[in-house]
Design goal:
By secondary structure, the protein is mainly alpha-helical. It is built from 7 helices and no strands. 72% of the residues lie in helices and 0% in strands.
């Protein structure tokens, strides 16, 4: 049996069995607690005369008021949290949050453009090396690995994933593959620069997958 049930049913032992209820100091303390809780809940000073109340009834009233205070406090905290999540439009906090979001999107787009530019630059370097040496050296292999990593990130930013048969009409020589890699990488760089980051671009995804497959083909041919 819990405390509230005991109090309401009258089964709680009589006050004379609890010395804390038999002294004026104890009654004064309970009165102080009741008035303090009432002040917190209702937001105003509350002074009541408890001289005619039995200690059991006074304790029961304190319990009820305390439970109400806890519930009200929890609801108030929930309301504050909801207000933080739904800031009013036009408020300084909402405007600051919007500016931060815009700056973040600009930064992400700028970084993606830089990735595509690096892919184009590395692809041109590979093409020049293969035209001179007709093979891929250790430095070229590292460039290819970097190109694959960047192309996968660009593809992911565009909302894409692996695509079967991404490389159509595959080149038959390493020189042809290097030339095509350089050309597609240049096209990809231009397209990433002009495409907003939020847009899912099928063309960027296709070109990224083609670059990945060309890099793998050049590695096999070398």
């Amino acid at each position: 049996m819990n405390a509230v049930t005991a109090l309401t049913s009258g089964s709680i032992p009589s006050p004379h069995r609890f010395t804390c209820f038999s002294t004026p100091r104890a009654l004064l303390f309970i009165r102080f607690v009741f008035e303090a809780e009432a002040s917190l809940v209702f937001g105003t000073d509350l002074s009541l005369d408890f001289s005619s109340m039995k200690p059991r009834d006074l304790l029961f009233s304190c319990c009820l008021l305390f439970a109400f205070a806890v519930t009200t406090g929890a609801q108030s905290r929930a309301d504050d949290a909801e207000q933080e999540r739904t800031l009013p439009m036009g408020s300084p906090a909402a405007e600051a949050m919007a500016r931060q979001l815009i700056e973040h999107e600009k930064k992400e787009h700028r970084e993606n453009i830089e990735r595509a530019q690096e892919v184009a630059r590395l692809s041109q370097e590979i093409q020049r090396d293969i035209e001179k040496k007709a093979r891929l050296d250790a430095e070229g292999a590292r460039r290819l690995e970097r190109i694959e990593k960047l192309a996968r990130r660009i593809r992911s930013e565009a909302g894409g994933s692996d695509m079967p048969d991404a490389l159509k009409d595959a080149p038959t020589t390493i020189e042809q593959a290097a030339h095509r890699l350089s050309r597609i990488a240049k096209e990809l760089s231009a397209e990433v620069e002009k495409t907003p980051r939020q847009v899912i671009s099928a063309s960027i995804i296709e070109k990224s997958n083609e670059i990945i497959e060309l890099a793998r083909l050049i590695r096999r041919m070398s």
